[in-house]
Write a structure and sequence with these properties.
12% strand; globular; diacylglycerol O-acyltransferase; diacylglycerol O-acyltransferase activity
């Protein structure tokens, strides 16, 4: 998140780990330089929906990463972390107010705990699933705004690839795409 890059020392730590700001401007510049990006499509909103035993992905209305990929001809690779939602126990206390804060100010305040009621995550299995790349057409002009129909088409392909990846490799968990 952009705010994290404004905090001294945190910014330097993130930059040393090759993290970049989540803004479209920075992502576009990175793609223009030929770099690959890993985008957490659900962002902070997804952290508000964790539920043990269920894999929840915020993706239905997230198309910015698809537009970005199509603008620069960057292939889409479906990646999914099955079991991540079991790292912490979360609570729904004041969830409507917390969701309002998240939607209006981009501040996620999940109420959670791990082992021994600390921030240490529970020791649970997690599998990172990486699907086959979805080839995207090269744009006539790098950085040009893609056709909305093309964005919808590739968004549907990405969601289908994610569902297929989950159903093929994860048998004991439910996938919910919001």
């Amino acid at each position: 998140a952009t705010v994290m890059f404004k905090i001294p020392l945190v910014r330097e730590l993130f930059l040393n780990m090759s993290y970049i700001d989540a803004s479209r401007k920075i992502a576009s510049a990175s793609l223009k330089e030929g770099r690959s990006l890993f985008v957490c499509t659900g962002g902070e909103e997804e952290s508000m929906y964790t539920e043990m035993g269920k894999d929840i992905v915020v993706l239905k209305n997230r198309k910015g990463f698809i537009r970005l990929a199509l603008s620069y001809g960057a292939d889409l690779v479906p990646v999914f972390g099955a079991g991540i939602t079991d790292f912490y126990r979360t609570y729904g206390f004041m969830s409507k107010q917390r969701m309002w804060l998240q939607k209006n100010f981009g501040v996620a305040l999940p109420i959670f705990h791990g082992r021994w009621f600390t921030p240490l995550p529970y020791r649970v299995p997690m599998n990172i699933l990486i699907g086959e790349p979805i080839k995207v057409p090269k744009p006539a002009e790098i950085g040009a705004k893609p056709d909305p129909k093309l964005v919808d088409e590739y968004h549907a392909k990405y969601m289908e690839a994610l569902k297929l990846l989950h159903s093929k490799h994860v048998k004991d968990r439910v996938l919910e795409i919001r």
